[in-house]
Specification:
single chain, 246 residues, alpha/beta, Rossmann fold, 7-stranded mixed β-sheet, 10 helices, 44% helix, globular
């Protein structure tokens, strides 16, 4: 079996289901992680918000290259094949007419897709259609937490009209259990996938490889490891979801 996981950013699949990716790879299945917002921003000045983000990540202006390198190390741990698309992370996207940054605050990351970005859903869906094999299991984020790039990825995947699996975006899924409860009530079907102790250790290492992003959610790597272990224990593994028929 061949699996393709759609990751809005470099770390999202590692965070959300790294242990499952490792288990599938260990079982001999082909697993690919497609990072959607993996493009290099054009040269020029950064917005104050981007500068703040880079400072918090403790990386320099070549942040995307450094994050891409982290992703390579993470995918090596998971034994997954990495593929990076060229759409920019939303924090780098600008209006081509006036150069204004479309998402220039923390609040804007959780708002609606900017009208200038409306074309990206069709563009991305067309790219998926041209690159996806005919026989493959596609795993898409549920977009829990409502991050604009997660919703973009989900919308483009659903526009394909193909059967999809969905993963719960971690750690947002743990912060708002109400969204998962609503899925149950709407008829969505969770399928529990086992993650062994070895898979758990690989999951931890894969997230730790995204070193620049640890401080976004935790104070240090040990806290991250404890949080992931608790997440697996609470669920008994990792859930993938299927939408209700029709």
């Amino acid at each position: 079996m061949e699996w393709i996981y759609l990751s809005p950013h470099f770390d999202d699949v590692a965070l959300s289901c790294g242990g499952l990716v490792w288990e599938q790879s260990k079982a001999g299945e082909q697993v690919h992680i497609w990072t959607i917002c993996g493009g290099d921003p054009l040269g020029g000045s950064l917005s104050p918000f981007v500068a703040y983000k880079h400072a918090s990540w403790e990386i320099d202006e070549d942040a995307v290259a450094q994050r891409r390198s982290e992703d390579g190390a993470s995918c090596a741990v998971l034994r997954a094949h990495a593929h990076h698309f060229t759409i920019l992370d939303c924090i780098y996207r600008q209006d081509p007419e006036n150069g204004e940054f479309l998402y220039d605050s923390e609040e804007s990351l959780w708002g609606p897709l900017h009208p200038v970005d409306a074309h990206l859903v069709g563009r991305l869906s067309d790219q998926f259609a041209s690159e996806l094999p005919a026989r493959v299991e596609i795993v898409c984020p549920l977009a829990l937490g409502d991050h604009v790039d997660h919703r973009l990825t989900r919308a483009a995947a659903e526009a394909l009209g193909r059967p999809l699996w969905y993963y719960a975006d971690y750690p947002y899924a743990q912060r708002d259990a109400g969204q998962l409860k609503a899925l149950h009530q709407a008829g969505w079907k969770p399928v529990l996938m086992d993650v062994s102790d070895d898979g758990m250790r690989a999951w931890e290492r894969s997230v730790a490889a995204h070193a620049s992003q640890i401080s976004t959610f935790w104070s240090a790597v040990p806290e991250m490891m404890t949080a992931l272990q608790d997440y697996r224990s609470q669920a008994g593994g990792i859930y993938l979801w299927r939408a209700p028929p029709g």
